[in-house]
Amino acid sequence: MKSNFLILCLQDEDDFEQEMNRRQDEFLDLFSLYRQTGLSWIKEELLLKAYQLHLLDPEFRFHL
């Protein structure tokens, strides 16, 4: 079962920036894979990553 919780322990601004960069990279990798394959389970993962990015940065928006 998937959880909708996102728990992070960040020590400072550098930790936050590194975490954002890591999650953005994961998101972009999934987006590229989804555009190549169109598979529904990849779309679900992509939307989950987008939601997690939005939790970290409320300005982040994504629409398919």
Question: Secondary structure elements and their pairing?
Answer:
Elements: H1 13-37, H2 40-56
How would you sum up this structure, described in words?
The chain has 64 residues and is an all-alpha fold. Helix content is 66%, strand content 0%. The protein is built from two helices and no strands. The chain has helices at 13-37, 40-56. Helix 1 (13-37) packs antiparallel against helix 2. The protein starts with 12 loop residues before the first helix and ends in an 8-residue tail after the last helix. The relative contact order is 0.16.
**N-to-C SSE series?**
HH
Question: Which shape, going by the Cα principal axes?
Answer: elongated
Average pLDDT rating: 86
Biggest sheet overview: none
* Structural class designation: mainly alpha
Radius of gyration: 13 Å
How far the N terminus sits from the C terminus, by CA atoms, comes to: 24 Å
Residue fraction in strands: under 5%
Helix percent band: 55-70%
Outline the low-pLDDT stretches.
Answer: none
Number of beta strands: 0
The total of helices stands at: 2
Based on the model shown, name its key terms.
64 residues, 2 helices, mainly alpha
Kindly summarize this structure in a few lines.
The protein has 64 residues and is mainly α. 66% of the residues lie in helices and 0% in strands. It is elongated.
